């Protein structure tokens, strides 16, 4: 029996988020997530999907001849075979990122992968799932992200930034407005007013293609 993963979609687009925003990237979206963030824009990946072998996924990725590959979901780390997939993508020579909720242990992820770890805010309704042990594992190759829904979420994110010195632990600290919940301009104004060492992140793909799956 070959190693398999349940996959919602594999597509080639411009990376809409994180430090590689704007760069052509292959996305591998794994099916299923143990969380239910209030704002989730990828709920279509909670169920369904297709069981595929790692070899089959790697072959499809190679067909796009990408430099960047992003493994997302759903929650990738909820499937044990996400770990070998990430390693094999690195071995194939791609620059690999992983989007993860921050609720699961990130320690087994290949160190060549840039781990994009969300800290779920109170307004996500999943903040109780945050696995704070992950913070000690972060390196300059990793990114920490807060999806912010309100001024209260912003103040909470700012307090975590200070409490854990996140800007010194991770290569990037990203503050992203929750699409539909918070005006990007308000968040931009708060970041400037408070002189925070964080990068405002807008979801480029939503400006370009609205909320279409597969873009
Ligand atoms: C759909 S999740 C999949 C990966 C993983 N489950 C996670 O939460 O990081 C990918 C990224 O999209 C973000 N996201 C989801 N819905 C969003 C929204 N409405 N506005 C902004 N970012 C959102 C998540 O916080 C996460 O950083
Ligand atoms: N273009 C594009 N960039 C993305 N970056 C992260 C995404 C995600 O859904 O995790 C995503 C996505 O769905 N589309
Ligand atoms: S953890 Fe990620 S995929 Fe799961 S509900 Fe939250 S944003 Fe959506
Ligand atoms: Mg998305």
Automatic annotation (TrEMBL):
Q: Which residues bind substrate?
A: 14-16, 29, 72
Keywords recorded for this protein, A-Z: 4Fe-4S, Iron, Iron-sulfur, Lyase, Magnesium, Metal-binding, Queuosine biosynthesis, S-adenosyl-L-methionine
Catalytic class of the enzyme: lyase
Judging by the UniProt lineage, the source's domain of life is: Bacteria
User: Has the keyword Oxidoreductase been applied to this entry?
Assistant: no
Entry's Gene Ontology molecular function annotations: 4 iron, 4 sulfur cluster binding; carbon-nitrogen lyase activity; magnesium ion binding; S-adenosyl-L-methionine binding
Would you identify the family this protein belongs to, as annotated? Belongs to the radical SAM superfamily. 7-carboxy-7-deazaguanine synthase family.
NCBIfam families, from UniProt?
Answer: rSAM_QueE_gams (TIGR04349)
Name assigned to this protein = 7-carboxy-7-deazaguanine synthase
Instruction: Give the originating organism.
Output: Pseudomonas gessardii
Q: What is the lineage of its organism?
A: Bacteria, Pseudomonadati, Pseudomonadota, Gammaproteobacteria, Pseudomonadales
């Amino acid at each position: 029996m070959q190693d398999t993963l349940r996959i919602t979609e594999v597509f080639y687009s411009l990376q809409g988020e994180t430090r590689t925003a704007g760069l052509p990237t292959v996305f591998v979206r794994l099916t299923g997530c143990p969380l239910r963030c209030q704002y989730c824009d990828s709920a279509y990946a909670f169920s369904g999907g297709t069981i595929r072998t790692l070899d089959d996924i790697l072959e499809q990725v190679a067909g796009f001849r990408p430099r960047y590959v992003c493994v997302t979901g759903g929650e990738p780390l909820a499937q044990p075979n996400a770990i070998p997939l990430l390693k094999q993508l690195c071995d194939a020579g791609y620059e690999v990122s992983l989007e993860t909720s921050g609720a699961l242990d990130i320690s087994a992820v290949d160190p060549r992968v840039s781990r994009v770890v969300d800290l779920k805010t109170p307004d996500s309704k999943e903040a109780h799932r945050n696995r704070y042990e992950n913070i000690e594992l972060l390196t300059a190759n990793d990114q920490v992200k807060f999806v912010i829904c309100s001024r209260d979420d912003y103040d909470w994110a700012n307090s975590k930034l200070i409490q854990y010195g996140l800007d010194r632990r991770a290569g990037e600290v990203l503050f992203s407005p929750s699409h539909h919940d918070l005006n990007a301009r308000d968040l931009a104004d708060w970041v400037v007013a408070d002189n925070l060492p964080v990068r405002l992140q807008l979801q480029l793909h939503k400006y370009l293609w609205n909320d279409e799956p597969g873009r």
